[in-house]
Amino acid sequence: MTIAIVGGTGPQGKGLALRFARAGVPVAIGSRDGGRAAEIAGELSAQLGGDAAAITGHSNDDAVAAADRIVILSVPYAGHNATLEQIKGGLAGKVLVDIVVPLAPNDPKIVEMPPEGSATEAAQAILGDDIPVIGALHNVSAATLNNLDWDINCDILVCGNSLDARKEVMALVKKLGVEAYNAGGASAARCIEAITPILIRINISKQVPFTHAGVKIWPPSH
């Protein structure tokens, strides 16, 4: 099953393309510049060698068309709504996975939620009820995703108003070797997206001896 990553030439998109392709999932990466996407796809494929699924590069619209079912949106928040309006016509019968976090333009340690409450909810409002929007992968470091020598060091919280679509996305995410948790309806994205600037603040702090930390659901030992 081919997935699409719209905004697949950015750090998060490239890291996800590498991880999914290595897990055997074909990936169509999209960009406003289809030629640039094709160039990046070639570089990522060369990095993985011959043991991975195909990574191909397209315009955003063509990447959406290439997806069998799941389209991941991985663009800067400034382009979130406009990109959704552009690709909306190609999303019928598909699931949109929104990984975008509405960080403040001048300070990534602050979140600025849209009037709908979260980027996930804003996406659902733009696309309408017939296209399921699932929020996921908000809290994963792009640096971690792009370093294939590192395991992904966090769990994935998945939310959205369609339970069936949530389950589909959770099954896909688990192919990356991580645990995915059902976090409930789309309004849960208000909490999940807001975790990202907190992680950014901690990870850049000189008071901690690490970077690229993530969130884990830690079960009790008893």
Number of helices: 8
Low-pLDDT segments = none
From the helix content, strand content and strand pairing, which structural class follows?
alpha/beta
How are the strands ordered across the major sheet? 3-2-1-4-5-8-9-10
Biggest pleated sheet: 8 strands, mixed
Estimated helix fraction: 25-40%
The SSE string, one letter per element, is EHEHEHEHEEEHEHEHEH
What's the count of strands?
A: 10
Report mean pLDDT, rounded to a whole number: 96
Q: What percentage of amino acids are in beta strands?
A: 15-25%
Shape: globular
Give a short summary of the structure.
The chain is α/β, with parallel strands linked by helices and 222 residues long. The chain has 8 helices and 10 strands.
Q: What this model shows, in words?
A:
The termini are far apart. This protein is α/β, with parallel strands linked by helices. The chain has an eight-stranded mixed beta sheet, with helices on both faces. The protein has helices spanning 11-22, 34-48, 60-66, 80-87, 119-127, 142-146, 163-174, 189-204; strands spanning 3-6, 27-31, 55-59, 70-73, 95-98, 103-104, 107-111, 133-135, 156-160, 180-184. It has eight helices and ten strands. Strand 2, helix 2 (34-48) and strand 3 (55-59) form a beta-alpha-beta unit. The radius of gyration is 16 Å and the shape is globular. Helix 1 (11-22) crosses helix 2 (34-48) and helix 4 (80-87) runs parallel beside helix 5 (119-127). The model has no long low-confidence stretch (mean pLDDT 96).
